[in-house]
Amino acid sequence: MEFSGEIWYWRGPAPWYFITVPDEESAYFEAESNFVTYGWGMIPVTAEIGASVWDTSMFPKDGRYILPVKAAVRRAEDLDDGDVPTVRLRLRSWT
């Protein structure tokens, strides 16, 4: 699955950067979630931005999913808050 999304910064107790998965793509992941989730609605994925590939888990927020984007990926792809990269996601098994 491929889409573009804006990187945003969450300033919570554990600050992190995320990309919100669009509605249509979130609906797909929601439909598949019973097969892959490992609790709290977490969905394991392999994510790609540019040449960077990493395993992570998305989680639900406000009716959609959010994808964490780690610092190493942001540095490698020269990304910051407000940038809109193209993201490729593949479901993976959590086991």
Automatic annotation (TrEMBL):
InterPro entries: AF2212/PG0164-like_sf (IPR037079), DUF1905 (IPR015018)
Name of the protein this chain belongs to: DUF1905 domain-containing protein
Lineage summary: Bacteria, Bacillati, Actinomycetota, Actinomycetes, Propionibacteriales
Family annotation (Pfam families): DUF1905 (PF08922)
Gene3D superfamilies: AF2212/PG0164-like
Top-rank taxon: Bacteria
